[in-house]
Queue: 2 jobs
Job 1
Amino acid sequence: MLVLEAKLKGETQQFELLDEAIRTAQFVQNSCLRYWMDNRGVNKYDLYKLCKDLAANIEFPWCKKLNSQARQAHAERAWSAISRFFEHCKKQIPGKKGYPQFKRHQTRASVEYKTTGWKLSDCRQFITFTDGFKAGQFRMWGTRDLHFYPIDQINRVRVVRRSDGYYVQFCVDVERNEEREPTRHTVGLDVGLSHFLTDSDGNQVENPRHLRQAEQRLKRVQRQVSRKQKGSANRRKAVNRLGRAHLKVQRQRKDFACKLARCVVKSNDLVAYEDLKIRNLVTNRHLAKSISDAAWGEFRRWLEYFGKVFGVVTIAVAPHYTSQDCSNCGERVKKALSQRTHICPHCGYVADRDHNAAINILNKAISTVGHIVTAAPDAENACGESIA
Ligand SMILES: [Zn+2]
């Protein structure tokens, strides 16, 4: 699955119609959730039926305006939130189970269409929304890649509202696979605060400077927001600025994570990293830490994505004792967080703390995988044969 994104250009009044569509989609989704809460043993098909009833109900005339497949898509969203919650309960994951939440009104929101309710122009530069809201034709910015795919491969179209405008996303049904020569090289990655990452060869990647700068800027804009009077136009403007500042950070982070992950995956046959629970970390009070955690989470998602694309094995190992154990002799060497160097009293091995951890991570991964078939002709085999 591939997602292509373009920015929409149109009249103010057209965007108001898109807002209506988004609001209706949320209404459908929330109604489904409410129905599930109020009734026992509701399944996905009950929710589909509810969508039909909503459209027929004269009390909610706006529901009929939304494309029928879009109504279904939002029932599916509600259902996936519900089943995710059940899944968490069943697996008895400690902590919050993620009870499905109602969609609140906020800037970032979206409406999802399937294969109907929209139409692309032949030149692929315009999109027309054809459902009951009659938002009409929009020009799209950044659709060059759209030419490569036939229209019947597009199985979802999403309109996403952000602080700086409206975007359309096309979900294209393709498996992306790329050729890669095996490098016979494996790597372990350790992430930390002082460096973005340290690998098992001792290479380090610094924290990107723009994250630090963005953090300063976010703080400043946040202060501006809190100084403005509630409900005033100035406050609304400041809130919008804050939203844009967040967007900018997100985009820079994505760019950094994506490039680095691609580079790491392309030059290795196996990539090992710690299985950190990012969700617990991001709530950390220190902004600096939460920013680098978010970047790490993004980086990990791209690692796994490119791992699939290039047929490279990616393994998340349990993080226990990776920084304490000696990577040379295996003895446990306790050290405080402030101690940046690993000095082993048992075998005399000295290394940078993160470097030592990265080697441990790689060793852990290799011990779980068995041997690695680097010369396998294709990705499926490489994974299948190497798992002992
Ligand atoms: Zn040692």
Job 2
Amino acid sequence: MTYPLNLELPWVEKYRPYTLNDIVGNKETINALKNIAKDGNLPHLIISGLPGIGKTTAALALSRDLLNNDEKLIKEAVLELNASDDRGIDIVRNLIKTFAQKKVTLPYNRQKIIILDEADSITSSAQQALRRTMEIYSSSTRFIFACNQSNKIIEPLQSRCSILRFNKLGDEEILTILKRVLDNENINTFTDDGLAALVFTSDGDMRQGINNLQSVYYGFKMINNENVFKLVDTPNPIIINKMIKMALRGSIDESIVILDSLIERGHSCIDIINICFRVSKTLQEVDNETVLTVLLLERLKAKEAKRRETGEDKIRAEAVKMKVVVKESEIQDIIRDVVRELPQGTSHISVKRLVQMVSDSRDGNIDVAVVEKVVNKMYSVSMNVVSLV
Ligand SMILES: Nc1ncnc2c1ncn2[C@@H]1O[C@H](COP(=O)(O)OP(=O)(O)OP(=O)(O)O)[C@@H](O)[C@H]1O
Ligand SMILES: [Mg+2]
């Protein structure tokens, strides 16, 4: 099979930094690696952290920098194994041992390097087998383990290594790299809100950010908020923002319409709630209470669906007809209970929302019209229902 000559690499690979200098973020950790690259004598390392933040990139760049970017030497002295290779005990015994025993002429204070990428997927028996190998050959061969969770590396290996943790990249850092790519690709069909959407959806994962950038550009040639969210399978935070604000103002019905449309588009409740939390962090006027409101909506929604399914609605209607409803005086007590459970510092709450919360707290087993009546009565006494407690 022949490939077209202009076959283009995915941008994540095309723009993978070759040297430690080009890696963005995790400054202190990268500086520590730079010192190792300068002085040599690499310790066994574990680099751990979330996906797409530069762990593999750092392991490769460190190896390059240690070996002065000498391609021939790098080929000879660096062995990189990742999860797609067999990770069983035989690989450890054979491949790694053979490499560790191999003689390579190296500059002063440099060793051969074995990079075990995605090390948390190496079987524990294979990890056990590494213990001796690491010790026996440690004068000539050093290990770098890259993984998402360092606790998946067995204790004896952890104790032989220095452990470095990489953090998620910050928004500014993601933006810097996206702009670097746009610049190099000579792309100027982007808007600020498009870049902000890419930063938001990447959530600190640079690989995700660059991949989304490439897909949006290839798909639409224009990088703006709308196109990013057309492509990315995340609820649009601008819409979530609107939904939260409506719920806050007490326009529950309108808010539910938005929620419905998000669910209809196939977004899962978990995704919606996650974005609610993230959006709430960026809004000054929004606090945990807001998020609770939205969560409440979610509960309500699920309950309604269940009611429709089980025909509970009919049962309730029957109950109302038979006047098996809670008395006004009881509802007052319930309202006090609900209000008491509000987050501290809540000073004002809309009638509509309070009604919602009260009927919700009784799992729908209450007459909303009666609640509304009682709440309104209490409200007319004071605009600040909370102070009624
Ligand atoms: N800190 C960074 N600076 C510059 N580019 C980065 C950085 N982190 C990631 N990238 C980009 O994202 C791509 C993926 O990064 P990398 O393979 O290092 O992720 P990783 O942390 O090893 O993730 P995983 O846990 O999934 O293996 C790189 O090829 C590079 O293009
Ligand atoms: Mg990796």
